[in-house]
Amino acid sequence: MAKKGKLKVGIIGTSGIAGAHFDCYKRLEDTVEIVGGSDIIPGKARAFFDRKGMPEAKAFEKNADLLSLGLDAVSVCTYNSTHAECSIESLKANANVLCEKPMCVTLTDAIAMYETAKKKRKILMVGFQPRFDPNMNLIREVVGSGVLGDIYYVQTGGGRRRGMPGGNFILKDKAGAGALADIGCYSLDMVMSALGYPKPLTVSACTANKFGTNPLYSKEHDKFEVDDFSVALIRLEGGIALDFRMSWIMHMDTTGDTMFFGSKGGLKIRPAGLGSGWGGAWDGTIGPIYLYSDVAGQMCETPIPMREESHDRFFLKVKSFIEAVRDGAPSPIPTIESVYNQAIVDGIIRSSAAGKEVAVELDIKP
């Protein structure tokens, strides 16, 4: 059922990325009223809204106080390890949730989030803004068209030559994982969404932190607790092997192209920003796309014309969420897909810690 009047929106967690959510909601002020926000650090939410020129917004230290205002929607912008508790608390208060990526830290938490949203009949959308890039849509269309035939192997990754953050990103109790959770979940979503999100079955992975713990490369080396590199082989339903690798920092321009191997053709996507140091990860734009096939018995490499790049992916993400809340529509990014994404991240963490392949247990129904 469509919602009449302006939607009442709140922001949980007022650091960094919260500013981008706020700015998007302000652009939607004909539809949205920003009521307030909460942050566990005393005075932080108040300072956030004051900086944004919105002294009338209400600021709290407890989420429950914010949620008591009867919100229609909430952005969860806290650190990774609190995504689950903040999202579940919000859903139980009958608020729809836009949660920053990654979904959470563990598969157990992801399932709890999914089940709560399902029970409360609310939207729980995880913020993968690359979904709203026209060229990401192009890749999904090509893969979904059947032109590649039966897909049996996929490689994805990208990575940054230099692009390692600090602060909460490198603390295990806050982030849960490093490059894997920060940008690895994007590359996983890119290929998994193109494949239609087949269920992951097993994961064999290794992680490393050769640079994060090295004072030559990290000012916070003594605090570094997560991965700065990860690699994994994931078995997917349908007989598909997924080869994944991701890095914040490395002595290489990229961990490789994204490639789909099919029985009738192959698709290669080059990372954008190669040579920039920061570029090459799929949280940004993508580079040239090529289709490999046989035509009249000849091996052909065909460049696929790229669509005009969207520089407003983040806004389109927030806008799609608000429109779904307003119209009573399903989540623009199905929640079960984010659960499968988290299942792979969880599997990589567990497999690396155990030093062996692990099974992915997903006893839930979409």
> What's the overall average pLDDT, rounded?
95
**Overall domain count:** 2
The helix tally amounts to 10
Number of strands: 15
Let me know the CATH homologous superfamily of the largest domain. Dihydrodipicolinate Reductase, domain 2
Give the CA-CA distance, first to last residue: 22 Å
**From the coordinates shown, what is the CATH architecture of the largest domain?**
2-Layer Sandwich
Looking at the chains present, what oligomeric state does this protein adopt? single chain
The CATH first-level class of the largest domain comes to Alpha Beta
Q: Write down the CATH topology of the largest domain.
A: Dihydrodipicolinate Reductase, domain 2
Roughly how many Å is the radius of gyration?
A: 21 Å
Beta-strand percentage?
15-25%
Order of helices and strands: EHEHEHEHEHEHEHHEEEEEEEHHE
Spatial strand arrangement across the major sheet: 14-13-12-11-7-10-9-8-15
Please provide a written account of the structure.
This protein has 366 residues and is α/β, with parallel strands linked by helices. It has two domains: 143 residues, 3-Layer(aba) Sandwich (Rossmann fold), CATH 3.40.50; 194 residues, 2-Layer Sandwich (Dihydrodipicolinate Reductase, domain 2), CATH 3.30.360. It is 31% helix and 25% strand. The chain contains ten helices and 15 strands. The chain is globular, with a radius of gyration of 21 Å. The mean pLDDT is 95.
